[in-house]
């Protein structure tokens, strides 16, 4: 909740949002306003840096301790925020993922390399599938229909079949899962590819996952 508060430095009365949070203070806000803090920080850059260098270890210990101590309230706050702003949070996340695909993939890889996380994700996927079978069936049907629609009459079905057989053979001989990929995705944003032998390639599952619906220009 917003309230008015007088800055102890500049003595101006301002909205509480103009102050940094500080939960060691009685009203949970710092006594000087954000712009005064900034002025002070800019004026004392060197000595702040020197202080940090000198006391780095103890500062870190204190911060970590604080972080641990506030874990419960932090998580509760996060859950509450998520509940209230679910759609906005999801939209922001999707936007971030789209414009930072490489960073996102790297982050996912690190997260996924943890066995506990992997187990969690796999059981989540399983549960999601069980609870949303209709959705997955519809998605699968849509894809099948798309492949069908995207198959020109001149497509060589034997050549197409060979791609799938070759991918299977490669998987078996190398032990690395290979998949048939549409160079231009069937459901790309700007371009739609065809389900024909000229638009197919064999790549590893890993390459395919990191590709998403991108394509080379
Ligand atoms: Zn001030």
Features:
62% helix; 217 residues; two-stranded antiparallel ribbon; 11% strand; mainly alpha; 6 strands; elongated; binds zinc ion
* Number of E-type strands: 6
Secondary structure category: mainly alpha
SS field, number of helical segments: 9
Query: What's the Cα radius of gyration?
Result: 27 Å
Low-confidence stretches: none
Overall outline: elongated
**Which hetero compounds are present in the coordinates?**
zinc ion
Which sheet architecture does the biggest sheet show?
2 strands, antiparallel
Strand content: 5-15%
Task: Give a written overview of the molecule.
The protein is mainly α and 217 residues long. Among the domains are: 4-43, no CATH class; 150-217, no CATH class. Helices cover 62% and strands 11% of the residues. The protein is built from nine helices and six strands; from the N terminus they run E-E-E-E-H-H-H-H-H-H-H-H-E-E-H. The strands form three sheets. Strands 1-2 form a two-stranded antiparallel ribbon. Strands 3-4 form a two-stranded antiparallel sheet. It has a two-stranded antiparallel sheet with strand order 5-6. It is elongated, with a radius of gyration of 27 Å. The protein binds zinc ion.
């Amino acid at each position: 909740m917003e309230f008015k508060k007088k800055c102890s430095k500049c003595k101006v009365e301002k909205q509480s949002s103009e102050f940094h949070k500080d939960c060691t203070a009685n009203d949970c806000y710092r006594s000087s306003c954000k712009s005064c803090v900034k002025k002070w920080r800019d004026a004392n850059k060197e000595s702040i840096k020197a202080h940090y260098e000198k006391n780095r270890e103890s500062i870190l210990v204190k911060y970590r301790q604080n972080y641990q101590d506030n874990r419960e309230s932090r998580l509760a706050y996060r859950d509450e925020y998520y509940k209230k702003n679910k759609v906005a949070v999801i939209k922001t996340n999707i936007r971030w993922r789209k414009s930072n695909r490489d960073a996102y993939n790297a982050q996912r890889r690190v997260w996924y390399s943890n066995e506990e996380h992997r187990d969690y994700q796999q059981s989540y996927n399983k549960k999601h599938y069980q609870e949303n079978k209709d959705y997955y069936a519809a998605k699968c049907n849509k894809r099948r229909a798309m492949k069908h629609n995207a198959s020109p009459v001149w497509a060589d079905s034997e050549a197409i079949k060979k791609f799938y057989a070759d991918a299977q053979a490669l998987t078996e001989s190398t032990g690395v899962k290979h998949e048939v990929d549409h160079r231009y995705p069937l459901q790309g944003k700007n371009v739609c590819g065809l389900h024909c032998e000229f638009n197919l390639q064999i790549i590893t599952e890993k390459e395919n996952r990191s590709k998403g619906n991108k394509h080379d220009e």
